[in-house]
Amino acid sequence: MTLDMVVPNTNLVSSLSAALEREILSGRFKAGDRLPTESELSRTTGVSRTVVREAVAALRASGLVETRRGSGAFVAAQPPRIGPAILRATLDDILSVLELRLAVEVEAAALAAARHRDEDIRALSVALEEGEAAGDGRRLVTADLAFHKAIAAATQNKYFVDFINHLGEFAFPRRHLDPSAASAYGLSDYQGRIEAEHRAILEAIRQRDSALASAEMRRHLAGSRARYKAMTGE
Fold first, then answer.
1. What is the rounded CA–CA span in Å between residue 153 and residue 179?
2. CA-to-CA dists, residue 33 to 44, 79, 86, 127, 135, angstroms
3. DSSP 135-146
4. By the 8 A CB rule, do 209 and 110 touch?
5. Alpha-carbon span 178 to 137, nearest angstrom
6. How far is CA 145 from the centre of its chain?
7. What is the reported pTM?
8. Cα separation of 161 and 168, whole Å?
9. CB-based contacts of 169: which residues, under 8 Å, 6+ apart?
10. What sign does the CA torsion over 161, 165, 167, 173 have?
11. pLDDT in tens, 203-227
12. 232: left (phi over 0), alpha (psi -120 to 50) or beta
């Protein structure tokens, strides 16, 4: 089996779990199908069995996979439904998901500002650095997802984390773009705006300013909607 990964020098667990998620949500692995064994995945993707084990655990936590003692990992009988819909999404679908994220993540940012721990700030900083170092759209999506997951975790409310995991990277618009449209818009311009907005959110959270964190998150997601429309020519 060939998976669309692995990006060197990034979080291999996240990369592998995202690749497996794509295989499941695209229908290549169907409900009830057994995933390749740890050793098979390790051999075909070039990562350690520990990385494979943690990636499968992440999929299990998001409800995509279930494990059976002595039998391995299987695609859940009823995997989350938002992912496959977004995989075949129209522009209206994507804008609707961004609207949903606005409703949830603006409050998440406020709670993260009020409740974050030192380790949450470290996780946000790492995700921000990975985004700034991203040299292509694929890595930028991975870093973007990591940043928003870190905010969800900083709320100390696991249901915010579940929400982000449920949507996964399929909720991040750039991955849906036609390559020529994305190229015309310009990765560096897009990346620069994302970095600045993420940095502003992080600083508001670090300062424990809930009102500012909410405002910066709203600006960021509203900006994402506007950028997506611009990149698709709508």
1. 32
2. 18, 12, 22, 33, 35
3. -SHHHHHHHHHH
4. no
5. 12
6. 3
7. 0.61
8. 10
9. 18, 21, 141, 142, 145, 175
10. positive
11. 999 999 999 999 999 999 998 888 7
12. alpha
